[in-house]
Structures are given as C-alpha cells and as structure tokens.
Amino acid sequence: MHLHEIHHKALNDDTSWGAAIHIADSHPEWNVRLAPLLVDSCRIVHESFASFMSISLAGARHEQADSVLDQYPIYRPLARRLTRLLTPLADSHRRDLAATGIARFCMSSPILDLLVDSYPREISLSDIPTAWLPDHRFTLIASASARVVAAAGLEADRAFQEHHGHPIDALTLYLTDEALDSAWQSWEERFVSALAENQARLSRLPAITANSHLEAAAALVAAASVDGLTIEPPHEPGEHPLSDLESVQRILTATRIPLREPYKSGMVTPGEGVDLAEILDHCAAHKPPYVVVHGRTTKSLLANFELRSADRAYLEARPPGPVFAVRTLTEYGEDDFVLHTEIGSAREYDELVAAWGDRGLGVNCVTASCFLEPDWQDAWSRSLRAWPTLVLADVGFAAMIGPTHLLGDEQRVDAASIGIGHPSLKALVMHVDGHPHVLMSIADDLTIQLLNGQLVDLLGERLAADKADWTAWYAALSAVTATVLGTESALRYSTR
C-alpha cells in the first residue's frame, strides 16, 4: 500500500488544510486536540483520493490493480465514489487530473488565515465554518451529476487548448512534461471552477489557489516563533509549483518497499572479534561461491539495521564517507544476526581480494549516495577496480547527471528491466558508455515504471532501452540482489 500513503503525503504537502495539519501537529499546545480535529475533518476526501489515485496509477501497469482492495475492503467504497463521479470524463489522465483538482479544492479553504487571526488561542470545531471542512466540500462535489461533470471536462479541454495552442487529444510524444505542466494545471483549475459554477452551493465556497496558502503558513510559523517555538513550514513562500518530473521524484522519495523488520546486527573488524578467513569460508559456502563488499553511508546502515548501541555510537561519530563491509547472516542466540565485517581502508580491501583469490565471484555494491561524498574516491578507486561494481541507486537520477557524475552528461546510457527470480521485484539496470560500473534499482513493477519514466525525461535521446547484452553482469547482479534482499529491511529510492 505504499502508493496509497504517498498520495496522502502529496495532498497534505500542497494544500492549506494540509499545512494547517502539519503546523498543528508540530505545535506542542495544538497537537493533542486541534491536530486530530483537522485530520478527522478531511479523512473521507483523503482516503478517497489516495485510494482512487493508487488504483489508477497501478492500473497503468496491472489490469487487476483494484484487486489489492480485497485486502483493504474499507477503502473500496471510498475509491468507487470518485470512480463513479469521474466516469463521464474521456480517459484516465483526465480523471486523474480531475481527482487531484477536486481533492485540492476540498483541502483549500482559508483555514490558515483563521489560525493566524486567532493565534495563540487554540480554535475549536465551532470556530470553523462548515463550508470550510474538506469532507463537507467533498460530499457536495460528489453529488454532481454526470452531465455537470462532462460539461466541466469540456470546459477544461477548451482551457487546455487556449493555454497550449493545440487540442488535448492532439498531443505528440516529443512534447516534454515541462512544456505541458502549466497547460495541465490550467485544465485542472478550469475543471474545478466549472464544476463549482454549475452548483450553487459550491460556487459560494471560498478557496485558496495553488501555493497562495504559503504566506499564511509562514505568518503562522512566525507567530509561533515569537513564543519561542520552532516549527518548520511545509514550503517556502514564492516556491515554484512542482513539475511532473519533480512530482514523480517526490513519489519516489517517499517510496519505501518493506522487506522485513530490521535485523539485529553489529560492526566488527578483522582480527578483532572475527577472523577474516572464517568470514570468507562462510561466503565460499554460497552456491555458487561469492563475496560482496558493500559500501554504505552511515545513514543507510543506521536506517536498515538494528545495531548495537556501541556500534550506533561508532557510526554516528565517523567522519563522512562510506563504510565498506562484508555482510554475513548468522545466528546469535535465538535471533538472526547480520555481521558487518568492516574493510577499513583500500589496503585492507586489497588484502581481502588476495585472500579470496579464485574461490568464486567477488563484487562491490556501493550506493549512489556514497558518491555524493567525493573525498574517499581517490584513495579507493584503484582498488575497487579489482572486482565489478554495482551502484545501487538511492538518490534521484537528476542528482546523478553531470560530467563527473554517475549518469554522465553526453554519453549513451543503456537500460533494461530484468528479472531477479523474485515474485514481485525486478531490477532496473543502467550502464553509461565508458563507465566501469553498472547502476541498478531493485523495485516492484510500478516503481520500475516510475524510474523508467524519469530516465526517459532526463536523458532523452541518450537513453537506449533494451538494446544491450547484460549476460556478463548476471552473476554479479544475482549476488548483489541476494545480499540486499537477504539482509536489508527496506528498499528506498532517495536518501533525502
């Protein structure tokens, strides 16, 4: 259900009511009564929007995407309410835009102005006009007839054509998201306004336009600061609206695919509590034999493993730079336990390579976030060339583009989605012409689709899909996938 939760987050981030929830939840005198009141007043619109959009987005890849609601039957009538309402619209993209516009309208009453005017008094439900409550607005909109919805869709199509210069059904594939973002926004805004104009009760409701709530949010945060309270605003005033590329990256940033509860684990160094030869014997017992040296930021290790308190303190005190280690899954008492045998220098890495010899495959798995810290690379790069390196993408692709970056700036980039022997996960693999490493993301079908879309938008003609032979990398991919899926607690696609 990670998509469902992502849509909740997006709706909260971009609306006045969502900003009010954010601020109330952060305020020590408002988080007990006011924050739950605000949440309860938008529960129906939130769940309806998140359920509808999750099914719609998943349905782009899976014909039976709505079957996931068999496991969450409480969401089915909520999703169907928007489905029935928006059926008169011509296609799924229009319906998605309409659902987004409706949800934002419902969540865009001037609640922040009321909070600013009342500050520092904590308001109650009786202070908020009924017409401002998101769920009340949603009930009114959901009563619109099919004729009104269809007419609003036609009005929105005309607004798109006026803004873009071409009919919405005449779009061509060469047009970029950036060129269309404002046109799509005009469609969404005109649909909602046309819907409201055709219903007297809706036309009288006050609404805050996109991002215009940020000044009131900033004023409320400033008022709290006078009392010595530090509250982070949801966004900054004047911040530009998100492009489609940025919106998808926001989804990827929030995406987390859980694998298990974090394993208990500990850090050790060869010669101090562990014998490197024993660790390599353990790796040699794999069929076929392989050893993987993982490079991770301390943040990644702290997030993925239940480390002993002394090891957490050790990692938190480390200087910037990746931690290189060989992982082994062992038993400690009655618990499974992941042992991280740290390889503390390039010289120790060379000794490991020599000790492993020709017993089997050796491979490195370093996360992309490690490469954002450049100081370590001069000391390690020569040694790491001894074995193939797979770079696990845990930052947005946009951060990897540049002359000295992982995705380069002009070179051809081969990419493909390949099976990894898992029932619900695949690997997206990428290779930049002339680079020694291969980039990879392990994800479910839907996240792979989003990642692929990012590559298409960012790389354009540099991207060559499904044209390379990846056979030489299969063994390395298999070894890395086995250790990542076998030891980590979750898959993430951004460290930010």
Automatic annotation (TrEMBL):
Source organism superkingdom? Bacteria
Name the record gives this protein = Uncharacterized protein
**Lineage per the UniProt record:** Bacteria, Bacillati, Actinomycetota, Actinomycetes, Propionibacteriales
